[in-house]
């Protein structure tokens, strides 16, 4: 499995977006055998074939959101995973974003409050992630850190945090240094990829990850950084940047 491959590559932790097609007992066995920590999973996406990508902010799907939350909580408990990304979902087809935005935000806030109370009893942090609507997903409801921060303020639960995927933040807003500084108090998880190709951090692109890593460290970020990128070659070959980074850090 991918957990075994991650362990073989030297990782001590993994994130696994959707693992609901995998046998839970087998996942538990592999996790125990490798000692690899599962640090993040996503709520189920809904019906992908019908165009779903999460249900948290989708009007009329509240019961399905709660069912998905129950399933993700079952996996999180079994794998001792302490973070769940609560996916917002897409603006419904044939709907105008501006017209439905207020209703979708209200649904999302209520669903997040419900989830926060349940997750807090388990010591689990809920996360919401802005996904860019310029390249990756034009219909995704949550698309900027500013929108996400405003929603988290309305939710008002300490175990609800912001998931910062630097790839999406750069595409939607740029201004990364100030945005990181502004939102670090509510950032609960970080993901990385180069822009615009979504490849390894050291591949050609807009971002200087040595600078961004230093920024996160200097500002006091203590959490995990997920490598959510598409390798240009093999996965193992693409990990050369990590080895080089740590070699440089030790010098």
UniProtKB/TrEMBL annotation:
Q: Keyword Isomerase, does the record have it?
A: yes
Instruction: State the SUPFAM superfamilies in the record.
Output: Xylose isomerase-like
- Residue ranges of domain Xylose isomerase-like TIM barrel in the record: 5-245
Coiled-coil positions are none
- Identify the EC number(s): 5.3.1.22
Q: What class of enzyme is it?
A: isomerase
One biological-process term from Gene Ontology? glyoxylate metabolic process
Gene Ontology MF terms: hydroxypyruvate isomerase activity
Query: Which Pfam families does the record cross-reference, listed alphabetically?
Result: AP_endonuc_2
Catalysis performed (reactions): 3-hydroxypyruvate = 2-hydroxy-3-oxopropanoate
User: Which InterPro entries would you find in this protein's record?
Assistant: HyI-like, Sugar_Epim/Isomerase, Xyl_isomerase-like_sf, Xyl_isomerase-like_TIM-brl
Q: Does this entry carry the keyword Cytoplasm?
A: no
- UniProt-annotated catalytic positions: 129, 228
UniProt entry keywords in alphabetical sequence: Isomerase
What does this gene product do?
Catalyzes the reversible isomerization between hydroxypyruvate and 2-hydroxy-3-oxopropanoate (also termed tartronate semialdehyde).
Name the protein family: Belongs to the hyi family.
- Supply the name of the protein: Putative hydroxypyruvate isomerase
**What species is this protein from?**
Oreochromis niloticus (Nile tilapia)
What gene makes this protein?
HYI
